[in-house]
Design brief:
- By secondary structure, the chain is an alpha+beta fold.
- It has 3 domains: about 100-185, Thrombin, subunit H (Beta Barrel), CATH 2.40.10; about 195-300, Thrombin, subunit H, CATH 2.40.10; about 305-410, Pdz3 Domain (Roll).
- The protein has helices at about 5-10, 35-65, 100-105, 150, 285-300, 320-325, 340-345, 365-370, 405-410, and strands at about 110-120, 125-135, 145, 155-160, 165-175, 180-185, 195, 205-210, 220-235, 240-245, 255-260, 265-270, 280-285, 305-310, 310-315, 330-335, 355, 360, 380-385, 390-395, 400.
- The relative contact order is 0.09.
- InterPro entries: Chloro_Bact_Ser_Proteases, PDZ, PDZ_sf, Peptidase_S1_PA, Peptidase_S1C.
- Pfam families: PDZ_2, Trypsin_2.
Length: about 400
């Protein structure tokens, strides 16, 4: 350690380097001693350097004259090889936050949902059952987005905010096809989630799930990444296009929020893949889909513009069932045709088998629904049907799909 020069430096705590004293000014007793042999050796080396320098200068003039007076390149000292560049840590995306920062920013937007459902027990008695799930606040005046299966058939729905306040909720609208529902509580000044964009997601992006697992652990946070995009998953005979994440999802998380590292809502948690040895497979409805559905449910009570045939169908999956219904092969068959429907106007009949939609083969009710869902009301599709042992092609102009509850209310 260097000594301090004066009292001020000591007080300031700033070390200084003592001034060096030239060797020739040092007292003789402290000067390093050199032997006569060392002095002679040094003199000899200096002489050799002077001779070699003169020779090099002469060689330079000789080269200049041999090249006809061409300008000689300036001599440069060879620079040492540059050290390999060390990559700096990758900068996080603009606005990215830590998990704890995201949770602090968005947790007030996620709620716990509890429902009462009337069921029939073994003795054919009506009993009240309890169920629970999660939801996300999407407006300051009390609109919440959740899953349809969370509130389906509920006789009472209650919402508990993060601060512990509870409210009874009213049903605004449901959409079983996307498993989404909107409910509303009589409250204001709520913290609504910031809606993000699921179309901008990439596999590997961070995800943060917040919900009410097991119906009693409200505000639980798990995190992971986007494991896959546009994953086709069949849930309850419905084909859905979902986000896949490895964030831990459990019963009760349904309807909760899936957020990115900027605190934006990118999905509504819908399900986890279960089974022996299955872990890290959770799914969410992309927010682009959920927002469009929510806007329609709030404005109209149902998702507008969807096309439908106006029929009920049945799946025939084995020869015994085929024999019972007296159909020649397995597949999807019309079990009912609504009066005045698009199907009736096109001439479809009970017992017709649906083989293909616009050339795409279908073999189940789920596949038929998936193909119809690609079209809007007013569009015309070509159905390949099986009737009287032969194939026929029928053109059908789809009607708008309006839920029965909305029809009755109108």
């Amino acid at each position: 350690m260097y000594p301090y020069q004066d009292e001020d430096k000591i007080r300031e705590g700033t070390p200084t380097v003592p001034e060096a004293v030239p060797v020739w000014e040092q007292p003789a007793a402290h000067r390093p001693k050199r032997s006569r042999r060392a002095l002679k050796t040094a003199a000899l080396l200096c002489a050799c350097l002077m001779v070699s320098g003169a020779a090099g200068l002469g060689g330079g003039f000789l080269a200049l004259s041999l090249w006809g007076g061409a300008e000689a390149p300036a001599a440069q000292a060879e620079a040492p090889a540059a050290a390999p560049a060390v990559s700096a840590p990758a900068q996080s995306a603009a606005g990215a936050m830590t998990v704890s920062q995201v949770v602090n920013a968005v947790s007030d937007s996620v709620v716990a949902i509890n429902t009462e459902v009337q069921t029939t027990n073994f003795f054919m008695q009506q009993v009240t059952g309890q169920a629970a799930g999660s939801g996300v606040i999407i407006s300051q005046d009390g609109y919440l987005l959740t899953n349809n299966h969370v509130i389906e058939n509920a006789t009472k729905v209650s919402v508990t905010l993060k601060n512990g306040e509870s409210y009874d909720a009213a049903l605004v609208g449901t959409d079983p096809e996307t498993d989404l529902a909107v409910i509303k509580i009589d409250a204001g000044g709520l913290q609504a989630a910031v809606i993000g964009s699921s179309s901008a997601l990439q596999v590997g992006d961070e995800t943060i799930a917040i919900g009410n697992p097991l119906g009693e652990l409200g505000g639980t946070v798990t995190n992971g990444i986007v494991s896959a995009l546009n994953r086709e998953v069949t849930i309850d005979d419905r084909s859905m296009n979902l986000l896949q994440t490895n964030a831990a999802i459990n019963p009760g998380n349904s309807g909760g929020g899936l957020f990115n590292d900027r605190g934006e809502l990118i999905g509504i948690v819908v399900a986890k893949s279960s089974g022996v040895g299955v872990e890290g497979l959770g799914f969410a409805i992309p927010i682009d889909t959920a927002k469009a559905v929510a806007d329609d449910l709030i404005a109209s009570g149902y998702v507008t513009g969807r096309g439908e045939l106006g029929v009920s169908v049945i799946d025939i999956n084995d020869s015994r069932t085929a024999f019972y219904y007296r159909v020649p092969q397995n597949g999807v068959y019309l079990a009912g045709v609504s009066s005045g429907s698009a199907a009736e106007r096109a001439g479809l009949k009970i017992g017709d088998g649906i083989l293909a939609v616009d050339g795409a083969e279908v073999s189940s009710a789920a596949e038929l629904s998936s193909q119809i869902a690609r079209h809007k009301a007013g569009e015309t599709i070509e159905l390949t049907i099986l009737r009287d042992g032969g194939e026929q092609t029928v053109s059908v102009t789809l009607q708008e799909k309006v839920p029965e509850s909305v029809r009755k209310a109108a």
